[in-house]
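User: Let's play a game. I give you a shape written as tokens, and you guess the letters that built it. Ready? Here's round one.
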């Protein structure tokens, strides 16, 4: 490897890599995508993505295995989710083949930036779909840009898995009951910046949002889904049309049932019934699994397993998932896509 970075101490920061993928949609169809060295987008000042939030993004990682090869984890699921998001925002779908092929091209072109096996680092891919062009009225764009850039990111927990505390704030929602909560769009994140800042200022790692209609059920963390473990060997994760369907979450539901012999359930998680959970965590591509120590809700502070120790089931799930992602454990059919160099 010719690139020499401090692989053990990578954070989650933008890094301008040599290549990114760029395709444009014009006259009702996708033009041939290319790899480009230009890291700047040139778009009309009136682009609907800038004014009315007609944009979507994705997030996935490429992993270096023990034998030095590189692989993607379920990229077809990211493609399908981006298609559902595109439908919700009246944007053209990026076909699954085009999406996965573009991911492979970006990883292969920047392969020297995929962190070595054993450092915990990965190459994070950020696909972006935006409406562009000279339209100022509130309507969908005629032209779109689909781009994927990449950056090496570090292990989320440098010193190993570590529980952190989360805050529930009744005065904020991240999404409306029938809004865009299930779509991976920037607008949901815009709504979460202020509550997120308040939580962080008060010493919490992030916000846990309740269902926007009744504020009685846990929905998710601002950028990760919630799960709880019960003493009856159940893995429970909330179900709601305003939760962003996390691919990590669905992977854990499968692994809990098929590898850990648990009962995997998507159902209501009442904020008044947190006592039934012996462990809890937040899951997503960036954080993988983030154990939840305690949750503050009004004057009530509830600790799940421990504020300092990671529960045994959370650790097993983490080891199983990351074992598959880094190629140490056998993957369920179709979960791993190799990148040819
Ligand atoms: C992307 C995202 C997640 C995590 O989804 P993964 O597919 O597991 O990465 C969870 N919640 C929100 C709001 C997200 O945007």
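Assistant: Ready! My guess for every position:
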């Amino acid at each position: 490897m010719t690139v020499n970075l401090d692989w053990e101490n990578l954070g989650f920061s933008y890094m301008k890599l040599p290549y990114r993928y760029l395709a444009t949609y014009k006259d009702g169809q996708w033009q041939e995508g290319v790899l480009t060295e230009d890291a700047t987008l040139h778009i009309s000042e009136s682009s609907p993505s800038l004014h009315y939030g007609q944009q979507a993004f994705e997030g996935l990682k490429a992993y270096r295995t023990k034998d030095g090869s590189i692989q993607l984890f379920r990229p077809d699921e990211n493609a399908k989710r981006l298609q559902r998001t595109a439908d919700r925002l009246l944007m053209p779908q990026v076909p699954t083949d085009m999406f996965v092929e573009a991911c492979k091209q970006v990883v292969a072109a920047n392969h020297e930036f995929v962190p070595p096996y054993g450092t915990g680092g990965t190459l994070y891919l950020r696909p972006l779909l935006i409406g562009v062009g000279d339209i100022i009225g509130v309507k969908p764009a005629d032209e779109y840009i689909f781009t994927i850039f990449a950056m090496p990111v570090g292990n989320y927990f440098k010193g190993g898995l570590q529980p952190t505390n989360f805050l529930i704030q009744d005065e904020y929602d991240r999404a409306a009951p029938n809004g865009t909560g299930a779509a991976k769009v920037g607008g949901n994140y815009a709504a979460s910046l202020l509550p997120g800042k308040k939580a962080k200022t008060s010493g919490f790692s992030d916000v846990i949002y309740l269902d926007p209609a009744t504020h009685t059920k846990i929905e998710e963390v601002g950028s990760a889904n919630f799960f709880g473990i019960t003493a009856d060997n159940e893995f429970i994760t909330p179900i709601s049309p305003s939760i962003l369907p996390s691919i990590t979450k669905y992977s854990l539901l499968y692994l809990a049932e098929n590898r850990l012999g648990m009962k995997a359930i998507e159902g209501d998680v009442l904020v008044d019934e947190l006592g039934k959970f012996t462990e809890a965590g937040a899951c997503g591509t960036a954080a993988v699994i983030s154990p939840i120590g305690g949750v503050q809700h009004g004057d009530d502070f509830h600790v799940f397993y421990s504020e300092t120790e990671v529960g045994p089931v959370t650790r097993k799930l983490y080891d199983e998932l990351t074992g598959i992602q880094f190629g140490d454990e056998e993957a369920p059919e179709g979960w791993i896509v190799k990148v040819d160099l």
